[in-house]
Amino acid sequence: MRRRFEHLIPRLLFGAWCVAAGGAALGQQPARASTVDAPLLEPAGESPAEPAEEASILAEPMSAGPLEDASPNNAEDATEDEPDNGADVLWSELRRTHAWARFEPGAWRRLRVVTESFDAAGESAGVSSAERIERLVAVDEETYTLEVENLAPVAGLATPGAVESRHLSLLTDRSADLTTPTIEEDEPTTISSGGVVVPCRTWRVTMTGQGATEEELLAVAVGSDPAVLRRSLATSVGGTPGSTVTANVSRLGLPVIYAEQLTRSWQVRTTITHPSGSRTERTAVYSADAPGGLHSESAADFDASGRRTFWSVTDLVESGRTPVERVEAADAPEKPAVSIEVNPRRLMRLLRRDERRSDDAPAAPTVPMQ
Known about the structure:
Blueprint: H1 2-28, H2 72-78, H3 87-97, E1 108-118, E2 124-139, E3 143-154, E4 157-169, E5 182-185, E6 189-193, E7 196-209, E8 212-220, E9 228-237, E10 240-258, E11 261-273, E12 279-287, E13 294-302, E14 308-320, E15 327-328, H4 344-360
Antiparallel strand pairs: 1-2, 1-14, 2-3, 3-4, 5-7, 6-7, 7-8, 8-9, 9-10, 10-11, 11-12, 12-13, 13-14, 14-15
């Protein structure tokens, strides 16, 4: 047996030398890319085991990737592939998501506004109600035209009144005939809305004319709906600061009813501050389905001391995405009717049984009159 092992030793040594030589040769060859991809790591907050706060289906339209990636630097990186990094991107987003520009001419809506004013003592000074119909006449690259018909109440009925044409800017929703705005892109930012952190690009819009200057900063989530998540407007007249307006999308994914169906909406809170110290607070609900976007709005005016002087409620009465379509507003889905079936024979038996019980009942004792 010892001789057998002695004969095997040279073979074993030769085999080890071959393996070593082959390994060295392989080490000199260039490495080839592996055909097996490494498994992707799930972003934080998207794992089923660790759901992020508010990470529900209501937030899906505003999801912009993992929340930890929503930083100004990443927002800038995400837009490096844009064909144009200037004002063209802003105009494109406005045309895609504007409350009127997303519809074809002929779309319309009917609004009802109920207002109440208050005197110095805080008592009601009167309540009024008015309605108006707005029709989309035309839309182009930067403007849109509305035909506004005010309905005057006559004998309790809304009667057609004066018709006014308004040529408005997609950028500011104010008159497009005053001056041409100057648009400059600013530093990117992030906005937290309803528990969702969204990267935004910002643009600074400046308008001057007749001694007045308006400067508005827009935060836009490119590719989302709604796209404009924040507006900050500052005005000045002759160098003197004027009113400021701040509008924020405060909540996303709220349900609202349109055309007898639940649809996604968002809430916008607006604060208007005047140099005198008075202010206006507004809360509105919008959706992408209704022409003009608005479903309801509540507004209140306060003087410098904080006393309420006026408030109003605006509601969508009916609308149509085409001239012939008519969608009536509904507060809630129609409840099913409750029907009660009555069997006539059973009803008669119950009545006869009740009569027999009355006949069998003892008569009440009579008391002689004194």
